[in-house]
Specification:
CATH superfamily of chain B: P-loop containing nucleotide triphosphate hydrolases
Protein name (chain A): Cell envelope biogenesis protein OmpA
Oligomer: heterodimer
Number of helices of chain A: 10
Helix content of chain B: 25-40%
Keywords (chain B): GTP-binding, Nucleotide-binding
Pfam families (chain B): Ras (PF00071)
Number of strands of chain A: 5
Number of helices of chain B: 6
Distance between the termini of chain A: 131 Å
Strand content of chain B: 25-35%
Strand content of chain A: 5-15%
Number of strands of chain B: 6
Number of domains of chain A: 3
CATH architecture of the largest domain in chain A: 2-Layer Sandwich
Largest sheet of chain A: 5 strands, antiparallel
CATH topology of chain B: Rossmann fold
Organism (chain B): Olleya namhaensis
Largest interface: A-B, 20 and 21 residues
Organism (chain A): Olleya namhaensis
Number of domains of chain B: 1
Distance between the termini of chain B: 15 Å
């Protein structure tokens, strides 16, 4: 055994641990190389993490990005109002045009229907009304199309704003809340003008007119669709006063069922 | 027969009146503070399990007022029950508690009133003990609109008193 062999044996003995460590590292690097270079291997590990992150991002997007996007949009709209108007104008124009066309079409169909009944009893009555009042038959026809219609009647306790009784053909609003808010608006308006004792008597809300008839312990709110003319208003007031004076009595205020029945019987026929 | 009662919440600005109502009616809470302008009316139908009575509470959430004498009297007309709310973390909201409560009871002597120390989640029990001279004398419930603690109980308790009055 020469000197070199002895040295080699000595090196092997001394560096055995390092060799093993280096060999282990080599294996690990090889495994990593395989993982990265083999697409399927990599996606098997990465895909679930990405999927989870994506799900979390989508879930949190409204709260994290929402305010930023809203703020950016607000700013953008504010800074480029002309551009927004220019972009929206044709769309809005088309929408309005389409809506008006549709409404005119409905009106025209209704008028045609009425005209086709020229020889009916209604037709004769219209002719008679036209001759008597001097208003053309065409105007009367159009008037009929925009006829006032009672949508809902609510009898509301003054002050508390609690519903005493209610009558409507279509039940689609939260009466208790509406009665409360109407009373709050009424109270505010009446408080604001303290010069004299006055009552709020009328509120207009888009296509609805809300007539308020005030009595001492309660008031009656009548929601009307269609045209709300002075003549109609006067007739409605007479009818409400007549109802309060002749139909209901003090005890009815404590019995909402009896009150509702009387209300329904009296206003079921809407021809005022 | 349907029983409806008007409940009015009074108190300083930002004491949590709207949050308490929101917690009670919708069971939600938001940290965003939106000041109430004028009045906001909400309602909730409540069943009282003890007596199995149904009652509709029409709740008026009045705008906050640092001076109770400035509260619009017309909003208080016809009220069946009051809830006075103050914020336990802001002494300014309960410094004049006795005066405010006297103001209500003098004008509406027969109307049930419940006094609420709100924002319980922000104070410790020790803090409540330290302030027992004020809190102990007047407060009926310690609530937290944020956690929902005691909120349901306040309204149920008042509703029970109103039912009792109605059936007398």
């Amino acid at each position: 055994m020469n000197q070199d062999d002895k040295l080699k044996i000595l090196k092997d003995i001394l560096l055995q641990d390092e060799h093993e460590y280096a060999s282990g590292l080599e294996d690990k690097i090889k495994a990593l190389e395989d993982l990265i270079t083999e697409h399927n291997n990599l996606s098997k590990h990465i895909d679930p993490i990405l999927e989870q992150k994506l799900k979390q991002f989508v879930k949190e997007m409204p709260s994290t990005l929402g305010p930023t996007i809203t703020e950016a949009l607000k700013e953008e709209i504010k800074n480029s109002q002309d551009a927004v108007v220019e972009a929206l104008y044709p769309i809005m124009g088309k929408m309005i045009k389409k809506y008006v066309q549709k409404e005119i079409q409905i009106l025209s169909e209704n008028i045609n229907k009425s005209l086709s009944s020229t020889f009916s009893f209604k037709g004769f009555m219209r002719k008679f009304r036209s001759k008597k009042s001097g208003v053309s038959e065409g105007d009367l026809l159009i008037q009929d199309q925009f006829k006032s219609k009672i949508e809902q009647i609510m009898v509301i306790e003054s002050g508390s704003g609690l519903i005493v009784s209610e009558y409507s053909k279509t039940e689609n609003i939260d009466q208790d809340t509406v009665a409360g808010m109407l009373t709050a608006i009424k109270s505010f308006a009446e408080d604001a003008f303290t010069t004299d004792v006055q009552n709020l008597e009328y509120i207009e809300y888009e296509n609805y007119h809300i007539h308020l008839q005030n009595f001492s312990k309660y008031y009656i709110a009548v929601a009307i669709s269609g045209a709300f003319t002075a003549t109609y208003r006067s007739k409605l007031e007479d009818k409400l006063l007549d109802f309060a004076q002749n139909i209901i009595n003090k005890t009815d205020l404590n019995d909402s069922e009896v009150f509702s029945t009387k209300l329904k019987d009296y206003f079921d026929n809407e021809n005022i | 027969m349907k029983i409806s009662k008007k409940i009015v919440l009074i108190g300083h600005f930002g004491v949590g009146k709207s949050s308490l109502i929101r917690r009670f009616v919708e069971d939600t809470f938001s940290e965003d503070y939106k000041v109430t302008i004028g009045v906001h009316v909400l309602k909730k139908e409540v069943n009282l399990p003890k007596t199995n009575d149904d009652i509709t509470l029409v709740i008026w959430d009045l705008e906050g007022n640092d001076d109770i004498t400035n509260t619009r009297a017309s909003y208080l007309m016809g009220t069946n029950g009051f809830i006075y709310v103050f914020d336990m973390t802001r002494p300014a909201t309960y410094e004049k508690l006795e005066f405010d409560l006297d103001y209500i009871t003098d004008r509406y002597p027969k109307i049930p009133l419940r006094v609420i120390g709100n924002k319980k989640d922000l104070v410790t029990n020790d803090f409540i003990k330290q302030n027992k001279d004020v809190f102990g004398r007047f407060v009926d419930f310690y609530t937290s609109a944020k956690s929902g603690k005691n909120v349901e109980d306040v309204f149920s308790n008042l509703a029970q008193a109103l039912i009792k009055d109605a059936t007398k």
